[in-house]
Amino acid sequence: MKKIWTIPVLLGALLFALPSYGQYFNQQNAWRKHRHEIMFGAGVANYLGDLGGGAGAGRVWLLDLEMSQFKPAITFGYRYHLSYRMAVRANFTYATISGSDKLTSNPERNYRNLSFTTQIYEGSLLFEYYILRNKVGHLLHIPGAKGMAKLPIDVIVFVGAGFFYYNPKADGTALRPLGTEGQGLPDGPEPYSPFSFSIPFGLKADYVLSQNFKVGLDLSYRFTFTDYLDDASTVYYDNDVLRAEKGDAAADLADRTDGSNPGWSAKGAPRGNPKNKDHFLTATVSLTYNFTKIRKRTKRPGGAHPFIKKRKRRMKF
Questions:
Q1: What is the mean pLDDT of residues 18-36?
Q2: What residues have CB less than 8 Å from 220, skipping those under 6 apart?
């Protein structure tokens, strides 16, 4: 009779222990087994600056985004988990951004008729915080068992610091060496650097496909410390002096207006807005691989449970 009650009691104790062990696995063990992750992403990039944009005279953040100017972007990253909720990520981004005054209905911007394209090469270090973290659920898949349900989703917010290279061009011609706003000339601004810093921040959501793979969406916005992603920032320089000092290409690309409203492109007239720095953003679909594999144990430490017998014995009542 005692043998009959042994198995139900042990099974009940095991089921009672599963939720607590599951919580321990999710919050204390799993992230330690998955400290190292690498990821690849592909998607699009865009920019907010002085060229193109909406119909308004001023820039109104995302409302000034030109939707037709999304260009390709790719990312590579390595993540190291610091704790259950926190991680750091080293990230590299290659993106193309562009802008054109022909695409805006704002009369002054459209008359200016400037355009640019540049490739961006950015390295960044990000701090990540998990708002939600995936959970494995039941350790044993027992039909009808109540307890912790599986949650195959990670939701992460991040912020960091980046350093990038850019080289704006128009019609295939590099603009920075031309000094289109009189950079380096008398009464002109200082030449700008092709390197700058950024502050990336955003949101990332991943869906867990398996123990080693996740697929997700990464939305990242960058504040930058330059106003020259598009080679436009201050005022028009004297175009005759620019032609004499820098050549025809510099003068032609500095003032691309048709001359119908000369006051809008005269010396000292606004060519850009130095009060607002240029920004850019990326949206990528990412694939994450965890290369720290959890090994499954085939044997229980300490041997089999006492109630597991090598031979089936007939129970006596």
A1: 56
A2: 93, 158, 200, 201, 202, 281, 282, 283, 284
